[in-house]
């Protein structure tokens, strides 16, 4: 069908996940933009944002990311108060556990671990308790922001952007039948951010890693409901029987399960004090892939993941061990993309094309950083005041040789 005009808007935000919604929200509510259009082929918050672990923390190995996430948590606190906590923000903290000395001045050692963190295995030797951390309902946060956008006059168009004419104004073809003209555009397309950049003749230094999670009904009451979000920092080999290990080693597709796997196995209760569900995750996939329209078709998805993550979690939370032999009867296995730069910092700010902006590469920290990311992108676009970390989180950092060398030498990228 020939393209038909859908009218003109001031700003078109491509992508209605949490990053795009947050950007539209701050453009609308903080900068008075009344003509903002969100465009997405799916319903808002229904792709990678729907697969979020919904956790937040201000612990990062670099002060730039700490300042960025602190700003986002400040805003989450404000919105929670404003909305009567409609998105169920908690402050249970993070517990980072290790069998070695972490070198942190905030670490807990020795008998205090057994007393204060009794769910951890006896071989844990040090713990860092991040107090400014917890969880939210990312979906409810997105819905709250959407309502704010609507109240300011913003709209949503369901459809895929298939071409972009970078004139003044931009002309966006949606589903090859509708044309939208916009003075400014935002690339907030999540795993498809590089595709949208390609429509502008640009390329972003990002890759996609599909990472999986499991939620299950804890029929045994293995996880106490007040347990903080707990993470095993240590690399590990899984505890197989000799027979299992031999069988796995003989299978070329499964032999990797006998090798050392990266740290980051994590566990937290889900559903509040009276809930019965638990979430497990482990971002061990290292194989990049192109994003799939249907997440069920992701080639790096691992059908063995529920057993693998349970075994990994049981290595530092022994109460989970009975589930290895008798897996949970009710569980959900799902996953989404970590869209990330090599240094695991986001890309927020101007693109090379005049009038085009991006809020991209939010990796596994989209929910926790969305407020600061959306606010920062909106400030770039509206000419507002920029925080000290703005340039470092934009594409301009690649011109800072000293910073890039520092990040290349870093021992941790903050991937949890």
Give the structure's gist in a few sentences.
With 416 residues, the chain is α/β, with parallel strands linked by helices. The protein has helices at 18-29, 63-82, 111-116, 138-151, 193-199, 242-249, 305-314, 322-325, 366-382, 401-408; strands at 4-14, 36-40, 55-57, 94-98, 107-109, 126-130, 133-135, 155-158, 161-165, 170-174, 178-187, 207-217, 229-232, 265-270, 277-281, 331-340, 347-350, 356-360.
Cα end-to-end separation: 46 Å
Could you spell the SSE succession in H and E letters?
EHEEHEEHEEHEEEEHEEHEEHHEEEHH
Coarse shape: globular
- Helix and strand composition category: alpha/beta
- Write the CATH architecture name of the largest domain: 3-Layer(bba) Sandwich
Could you tell me the number of beta strands? Answer: 18
Count of alpha/pi helices: 10
**Major pleated sheet:** 8 strands, mixed
Radius of gyration: 22 Å
Description:
- The protein is an alpha/beta fold and 416 residues long.
- The protein folds into two domains: 4-84 and 137-205 and 342-408, FAD/NAD(P)-binding domain (3-Layer(bba) Sandwich); 94-130 and 208-340, D-Amino Acid Oxidase, Chain A, domain 2 (2-Layer Sandwich).
- The chain has ten helices and 18 strands.
- Strands 1, 2, 8, 9, 10, 11, 17 and 18 form an eight-stranded mixed beta sheet that branches. Strands 5-6-4-13-14-15-12-16 form an eight-stranded mixed beta sheet. The protein has a two-stranded antiparallel ribbon with strand order 3-7.
């Amino acid at each position: 069908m020939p393209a038909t005009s859908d009218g003109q808007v001031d700003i078109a935000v491509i992508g209605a996940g949490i990053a795009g919604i947050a950007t539209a929200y701050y453009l609308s509510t903080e900068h008075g933009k009344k003509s903002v259009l969100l465009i997405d082929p799916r319903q808002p918050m229904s792709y990678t944002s729907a697969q979020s672990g919904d956790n937040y923390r201000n612990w990062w190995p670099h002060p730039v990311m700490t300042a960025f996430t602190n700003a986002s948590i400040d805003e989450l606190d404000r919105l929670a108060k404003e909305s009567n906590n409609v998105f169920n923000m908690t402050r249970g903290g993070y517990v980072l556990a290790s069998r070695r000395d972490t070198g942190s001045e905030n670490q807990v050692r020795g008998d205090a671990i057994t007393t204060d963190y009794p769910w951890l295995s006896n071989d844990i030797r040090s713990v860092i308790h991040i107090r400014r951390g917890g969880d939210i309902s990312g979906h409810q946060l997105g819905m709250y922001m959407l309502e704010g956008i609507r109240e300011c006059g913003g709209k949503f168009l369901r459809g895929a952007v298939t071409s972009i004419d970078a004139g003044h104004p931009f002309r966006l073809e949606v589903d090859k039948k509708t044309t939208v003209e916009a003075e400014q555009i935002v690339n907030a397309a999540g795993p498809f951010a590089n595709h949208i950049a390609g429509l502008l003749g640009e390329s972003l230094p990002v890759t996609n890693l599909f990472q999986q999670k499991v939620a299950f009904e804890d029929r045994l009451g293995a996880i106490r409901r007040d347990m903080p979000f707990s993470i095993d920092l240590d690399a590990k080999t899984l505890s197989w029987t000799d027979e299992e290990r031999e069988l796995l080693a003989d299978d070329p597709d499964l032999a990797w399960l006998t090798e050392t796997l990266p740290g980051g196995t994590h566990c937290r209760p889900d559903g509040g004090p009276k809930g019965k569900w638990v979430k497990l995750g482990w971002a061990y996939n290292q194989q990049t892939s192109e994003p799939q329209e249907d997440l069920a078709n992701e080639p790096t998805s691992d059908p063995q993941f529920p057993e693998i993550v349970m075994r990994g979690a049981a290595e530092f939370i022994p109460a989970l061990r009975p589930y290895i032999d008798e897996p949970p009867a009710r569980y959900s296995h799902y996953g989404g993309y970590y869209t990330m730069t090599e240094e695991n910092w986001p890309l927020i700010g101007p693109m090379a094309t005049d009038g085009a902006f991006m809020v991209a590469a939010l990796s596994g920290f989209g929910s926790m950083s969305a407020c600061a990311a959306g606010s920062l992108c909106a400030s770039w676009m509206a000419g507002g005041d920029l925080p000290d970390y703005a340039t470092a989180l934009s594409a301009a950092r690649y011109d800072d040789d000293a910073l890039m060398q520092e990040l290349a030498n870093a021992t941790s990228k903050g991937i949890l």
